[in-house]
Specification:
alpha+beta, Jelly Rolls, 3-stranded antiparallel sheet, 8 strands, elongated, binds zinc ion
Length: about 140
């Protein structure tokens, strides 16, 4: 079995934003040489998340709005006494910091309207890491 790792380093510009990393993930799958297996996309951060959905400007805003509705910044959260970013931790915890995709015939399998995004929840940050692990045969 082959196991291939690649790390992306991203700078984010806003407090909350979606950063499309689809091309980078597909490039990693190609570089891995894996024909059939799995691709893990993992953000090693407590205030970021990974999702797969449509890259459309309105929907991107809707997703950010929904996150603010579910995890409002001014929610009276206890963790805000420490560094005022509890909403980012909550969204990261419940949206999840990783996603797994099938790799078939050398290609990442995703729907036509499933681009892969890093969700910045407490930006702007420099050097946000995304670890891509491709494994299989
Ligand atoms: Zn915190």
């Amino acid at each position: 079995m082959k196991v291939y790792f690649k790390e992306l380093l991203l700078n984010t510009r806003l407090k909350r934003e979606l950063v499309d990393i689809t091309a980078e993930v597909e490039k990693a799958v190609s570089e891995s040489g894996v024909k059939n297996g799995l691709c893990l996309v993992f953000a090693p951060h407590a205030t970021a998340a990974i999702i797969a959905n449509e890259h459309e400007r309105g929907l991107k805003n809707d997703i950010l709005r929904k996150l603010e509705e579910e995890y409002p910044s001014d929610g009276g959260w206890e963790h805000n006494r420490i560094d005022d970013n509890a909403a980012a931790h909550l969204a990261s915890a419940f949206v999840a910091a990783s996603r797994i995709f099938p790799v078939m015939n050398g290609n990442l399998v995703r729907g036509t309207w499933q681009n892969i995004f890093l969700v910045e929840l407490d930006g702007p940050r420099s050097r946000r890491r995304v670890l891509i692990e491709v494994m299989g045969e």
